[in-house]
What we know:
The complex is a heterotrimer of chains A (245), B (646) and C (207).
Chain A: E1 3-9, E2 18-24, H1 33-46, E3 69-70, E4 73-74, E5 96-100, E6 109-111, E7 114-115, H2 118-125, H3 147-157, H4 164-168, H5 175-186, H6 189-192, H7 195-208, H8 219-223, H9 231-244
Parallel strand pairs in A: 1-5
Antiparallel strand pairs in A: 1-2, 3-4, 3-5, 6-7
Helix pairs in contact in A: 3-5, 5-7, 5-9, 7-9
Chain B: H1 16-23, H2 29-32, E1 36-40, H3 44-56, E2 59-63, E3 81-82, H4 94-104, H5 111-131, E4 156-157, H6 163-181, E5 184-187, E6 190-198, E7 201-209, E8 215-219, E9 222-225, H7 246-253, E10 258-259, E11 264-270, E12 293-297, H8 300-307, E13 321-322, H9 324-328, H10 338-353, E14 362-365, H11 367-373, H12 375-393, E15 402-411, E16 414-415, E17 428-430, H13 448-468, H14 482-501, E18 505-506, H15 507-521, H16 528-548, E19 549-550, H17 560-584, H18 608-611, E20 613-618, E21 627-632
Parallel strand pairs in B: 1-2, 1-9, 2-5, 9-17, 18-19
Antiparallel strand pairs in B: 3-4, 6-7, 7-8, 10-16, 10-20, 11-15, 12-13, 12-14, 14-15, 20-21
Helix pairs in contact in B: 3-6, 3-13, 4-5, 5-13, 11-12, 15-16, 15-17, 16-17
Chain C: H1 2-25, H2 28-40, H3 42-72, H4 92-116, E1 121-124, E2 127-130, H5 132-139, H6 143-170, H7 178-206
Antiparallel strand pairs in C: 1-2
Helix pairs in contact in C: 1-2, 1-3, 1-6, 1-7, 4-6, 6-7
Amino acid sequence: xxLKLKIWRQKDSKSRGKFINYQLKNxxxxxxxxxxxxxxxxxxISKNExxxxxxxxxxxxxxxxxxxxxxxxxxxxxxLITVCQLHMRKFNDGDTIVIEPWRARAFPVIKDxxxxxxxxxxxxxxxxxxxVNTGSAPDANSIxxxxxFADLAMDAAAxxxxxxxxxxxxxASAMLFVGAKISHLALLPQGxxxxxxRVSRMVxxxxxxxxxxxxxxxxxEAECPKGIKLTNIARLNRExxxxxx
Amino acid sequence: MDKIxxxxxxxxxxxxxxxFKSNQNLVNPANKRKLDVxxxxxxxxxxxxxxSLAEMGFKVKSxxxxxxxxxxxxxxxxxxxxxAKNYQNDGDSIYRLFFDTVKxxxxxxxxxxxxxxxxxxxxxxxxxVAQGVPFAREYGGTLDNRSFGGALxxxxxxxxxxxxxxxxxxxxxxxxxxxxxxxVEMYPRMEMYNLVVIDGKARGIIGRDVITGxxxxxxxxxxVLASGGYGNVFFLSTMAMGANASAAWQCFKKxxxxxxxxxxxxxxxxxxxxxxxxxxxxxxxESLRNDGRIWVPxxxxxxxxxQRGEITGMDIPEEDRDYYLERRYPAFGNLVPRDVASRAAKxxxxxxxxxxxxxxxxxxxxxxxxxxxxxDVIEAKYGNLFQMYEKITDDNPYExxxxxxxxxxxxxxxxxxxxELQTSIPGLxxxxxxxFSDHGANRLGASALMQGLADGYFVLPYTIQNFLAHEIxxxxxxxxxxxFEAAEKEVQEQxxxxxxxxxxxxxxxxxxxxxRIMWEYVGMARNRDGLMKARKELKMLKQExxxxxxxxxxxxxxxxxxxxxxRLADFLELGELMTMDALNREESCGGHFRExxxxxxxxxxxxxxxxxxxxxxxxxEEGKDPELHREPLIxxxxxxxxxxxx
Amino acid sequence: MSLAGIFLLTFLLVHLGINLxxxxxxxxxxxxxxAHFMGTNVLIKIFEIVLFGGLLLHMIYALILQVQNWxxxxxxxxxxxxxxxxxxSKFMIHTAVIIMVFLVIHFIDFYFKAKFGHAAEIxxxxxxYHDFAAEIEDKFKMLPFVIFYIAAFVFLGFHLIHGxxxxxxxxxxxxxxxxxVIQFLAALYTVIIVGGYxxxxxxxxxx
Lengths: 245, 646, 207
């Protein structure tokens, strides 16, 4: 496959950045999107140019490190996958591919396509946990959990923290990310004890970090590589009202 | 030999751990606040250790090279975690888990360590459930289990196909709670480049800020290494792209012994390599072997037509299929341990029966399981794995058989530690995959998560106090002392040297070359000639690297090529050490298969008389061979037998 | 935001009910009486303030949220979003502006005229009624006016079809069971409002 790439290049967080066009030839349709970028980088290195920087690690869709905005969609033109699982067969020979970093005030660009997502860690620090010290746990089967709730909690807990929901949202809102964690823990008896404090703190922090508001557009759900549902946002809202009133 | 004291407590096996805990030194709460601990890595072992130490009151500095502690590669573990809970009432016990682990490891692990691992396995499940890890449940609300990797009991706890992720997030959340409380200082995107040793004790590290390229000094009373495995020495592996051996290797160079470096695990069920540009291999959970049947064609001409792409697996009739694992190992069939399954696949492919264009793949077929259980059941069990397979290969495994091939997955070898998880450098501890671990020569499925969390939650936070109790009068270290300066200078010089090469070959090109040498000669099957050849080629490659590597960009910048080059420099040396260890171990055991040492039937042949020991290597100066220390392994509670899965 | 929205949703229904009186009874005086009642009853007067309050709240909140949302992404994407989403949710602020323009004109035409202007008057039994019915007849005989009104209703529909279900989601009402019902109700409601409001100008124009 031959491709035209239009990639956002930005030297560091302070620089302005711009799009640069690249041509790439003979890409195998069986290679992954990141492998295609590897090939580009090899070419750039051979030409004494700086390779394109992007975050990536596990390359099997679970660590959540990779993420870029490809032709108007986070993680590109396929559903329920991350960029590292996106394969070039989803594109056509001769396509132009526009690649941009996540855009959000809370996710400033570090370099090229790499962004700073530490805001997500800060959100979890506001209560995205169960306060239990090592060694103080009762026997695992002493807390029965209804299978239905365990399954729903697992659905929510599948979040990989990649930031696609924020990137996709027209308001750069983190409601799906926060909703998933709130849901995961509120659905389990272990997490219920601190539910109201957790939701209050996380919601306040979310606004403080500069994320936008939820307008129930659903782009987050549509682009979530793990298929996290909007119902988690509704549950977040319910938990929030419960905590406030 | 004084370098290598395993410090196993006295007493009967079952009482060693409680004896140790009853008699060890502890640090009182007021003093804990005055003691700093550095933890390198935020995987299961690192995150759980950092969180637990901070909960106890120690001041912890936690480091990871990724942008967030949640990204550590423990997250990719799919299948599950073992524990001897015996919730299924199928006769499981601590002893049985201990026994299976020692046997699975081909009798090359320390009895006392493995027993302790089995003992604390139950606490792990309790702890994780309390944290809100959403393990699979039965309709009655109790925890569900499945059998895994050929165990005779169902002792594996799981959270869909994302057990590692859920356990890691549990530990990550516990870590974040401590960050918020101010007990942990978190340094993401900070890579360890050197260990600082003061008066013989590990007292700090030199880190490099990945974004700014700035070198920074961090001091502490003890350093805990939880930096994972070194599978990426093979270039292609199931490891994360960034996973590296550099932190461990720096410790090795500062005097920590390296145990059993040649023991790496090759996982049988990975998606086969598809091209030269490939960057990484994807693991398909071992649980697939519970229902999938592995086969290749019986007739060579069928295999050749498959390789040319003229037919597909569907075109080969039942009677022409060779279910070779069921044929060779009727008792365990498709569920033989990983090393056995991997070697059998290699044997068939080497004999010319491979089923894809490269001839390096075998079928994993779900046709019978779908007929027997229905597509719905298979989908419920393996849906996410099937989806992942289809996304990568564009084949629908519900209709055509999957293709799999073995790939490098886990390193049993690692930094040598004593019973207290302390390395041969006082004050330096190694936990999780980064230590030479409790798995001997081969790890059983669902045991890595168990070991990482056992070390991090329940073992290290105790054993480290035995060391720290003597440090309560040691004030915090300033970082402007000569030891820090020297360590930083070493790093600075090394990095400058790398940048100054200005050669012609990219880091990946050289890394792929290293991978080919390692896979060819130090991979699934090894022999003396090959290993000798590898040593020579590795020396040449190292030379080539230091004269011809090309690193664009700058030192003081986010420069992934420099990061990769620096890691590769260490991998090249590690590769040599692995080769030496493989040469030294003149037997076949677990993941280490020497072609000269096999039974008449082609099975691995151990040499218990001469090699029942841990090979612990000590670094000597540049250009000199490392020195081998032997820690004899004594089996008092288990009869050492030839493994038999027939 | 959502509460104010739901409140306005109910108002739209009440207003529609009164409109339909004109059509159903086909007697201008019924409408005029209803309008008179609306214009003079104390309870309605109080409710009027509440209504304006609700509208104002809805608008102020919308403005604050919208500004926050714009700030949340200082640098826009070069390539527009292609995600499969609730389409009209992306244009709530735009449809809102159109609806506001409509409201201003609508107010000039009817509300302010009634309050401060000089609408035609009818005297029955000593009570003075504004002859809104005649006013409406006059207006909706003009084609541009009809087109403008109906176009405004269509945009109102765009606003409502997302707004209706979104309000419930924000209140935490979303799950497998109820969401399809709410979505159906949203569609039904939108059709009723857009259709219902459009009937009057059309009927009058073609009469």
